[in-house]
Amino acid sequence: ILVSRGNKVGVSKKITGIERTRLKGITKLLRPPGFTLTARTVAAGHSWEELNKDLDRLLSTWKGITEHAQSAALAAEEGVEGAIPVMLYRSKGQALSIVQDDFNEKVKRLVVDSPRTYHEVTGYLQEVAPELCNRVDLYEKRTPIFDEYKIEKEIDNILCKRVVLQNGGSLIIEQTEALVSIDVNGGHSMFGQGTSQEKAILDVNLEAAKQIARELRLRDIGGIIVVDFIDMTDDSNKRLVYEEMKKAVEKDRSTVGVSELSKLGLMEITRKRVRPSVTFMISEPCPCCHGIGRVEALDTSFSKIEREICRRLAVSGHKSDPEKPKSWPRFLLRVDHEMCTYLTSGKRTKLGILSSSLKVWVLLKIARGFTRGAFELLPYSDQKDTDEQKELSPESPLPREAGRPRLSVFPIKKWMSRAKRAK
User: Fold this and answer.
1) Is 79 left (phi over 0), alpha (psi -120 to 50) or beta?
2) Where are the domains of the chain?
3) Distance (Å, rounded) from C-alpha 165 to C-alpha 203?
4) Residue 404 has pLDDT above 90, yes or no
């Protein structure tokens, strides 16, 4: 990193030991007068020649910016129309940023499906690393590149809470506001007793440690992560799991801290949070469950409807004759499709039982756009239908007017007599 003012040198905090000392010495020798020079994390392992070449490129970029700014300022002073404002520098796109940080001799192949991006990448590599140009391929098949390399499936798996391990175990990842909890399950790999079972548990925990480190990088999970490993009795096995986790997180660019397993088999991991996790970036909270992952049971919603009707009856103070269904109060109930099916299915429908027990008429209507568990209870008193309703018997359905939704009336008295005959 080249800063145009200052006279300091720095090295990324993630680089430690001998490598940090080596890079600090190189940056001191390479730093041009009047600039601050910092070695990034990706500078680790690079030679003097590579770092010097990167510095020359940065100095060339800075020289172009200053020359462009000076020419624009002179043009503005001379009154040239449209001289300012002017674009002095445009940063590299996402593709070139990835190439700069990740594309090196360890990468065997880089596949690009855009001709424009392909030419940008190869043009950039011609300047900084010509020997890597032959490793860049242009993808020209008709099959989408994500499908060809099965990347789409990996993206879908990011949204899954359950991650299957190769040895039969699984991970359950739950993200909350405060922390992320990861539960390790044994599954079919748990077998035997005594030593064989302890060995099977160790294998699952070791595989889980590798996969957890990978999931943290893929999902870009930051903050506090609590991992509940399968309980192990041997302390040496716990140490092996701890060492495997420390080794697995070394590939991570973010700062990761790992603690040893507690007596309860819990491991605390801290990872520097730079941005929201991928799960929150590519998804939205469910409008039905509001992000908790569970919806209200239909029985619970039915109980709420029953209590709401009782509440309305108590407020209105209406007293109806149980022997005269025509005097019963009428309500319009608007629910979603699933709740409507729940209320009207079976020989003894829930809606019929509710109406007969509370001595009310309930007219049911499916409301579009209602999420599961949502309902609306309204008093049914349409003045236009008053005369027609007086002529209707409890056995007769309400007529349907043009432009009005169809409403279902459940005649309780007649329904009960039919139900007895059916038995």
Assistant:
1) left
2) 1-90, 161-282, 298-379
3) 11
4) no
Taking the C-alpha atoms of residue 410 and residue 155, their distance in angstroms, rounded to an integer, is 49
384-400 pLDDT tens trace: 444 444 333 333 344 33
Question: What's the pLDDT at 390?
Answer: 39
Query: In what helix (H) or strand (E) does residue 44 lie, and over which residues does it extend?
Result: none
Rounded CA gap, 406 and 397, in Å? Answer: 10
DSSP code per residue over 186-205: -GGG--SSTHHHHHHHHHHH
Average pLDDT, the chain: 83
Residues 6+ apart with CB under 8 A from 229: 184, 205, 208, 241, 261, 265, 266, 267
| Contact of 333 with 376, CB cutoff 8 Å | yes
Structure tokens at 161: 């809470």
Residue 331 bridge partners (DSSP): 362, 379
282-322 pLDDT, tens digit per residue, is 788 887 777 777 888 999 999 999 999 999 888 887 777 78
C-alpha span between 329 and 359 (Å, rounded): 8
Greater pLDDT, 414 or 11: 11
**Model pTM score:** 0.62
Strand stretches in 116-164, DSSP E: 136-138, 162-164
pLDDT, residue 401, reads 40
Q: Which residues contact 389 (CB under 8 A, 6 or more apart)?
A: 398
DSSP letter assigned to residue 383: G
Question: What was the pLDDT predicted at 420?
Answer: 52
CB-CB contact of 398 with 392 (8 Å):
yes
Structure tokens at 188: 């079919």
Query: Cis (ω within 30 of 0) for the bond into 130?
Result: no
Q: What tokens were used for 222? A: 């930051």
Residue 189 banded pLDDT, cuts 50, 70, 90:
low
- Burial category of 331 from C-beta neighbours within 10 Å (exposed 0-12, middle 13-18, buried 19 and up): buried
Residue 368: phi, psi to the nearest 5?
-70, 140
Angle, alpha carbons 30-34-36 (nearest 5°):
60
- Give the Cα separation of 315 and 215 in Å (integer): 55
DSSP H/E element including 288: none
Q: Which of 114, 133, 115, 113 is nearest to 123 (CA)?
A: 133
Please identify, in words, the CATH class of the domain defined by 161-282: alpha beta
Query: Where do we find the tokens 């070449």?
Result: 53
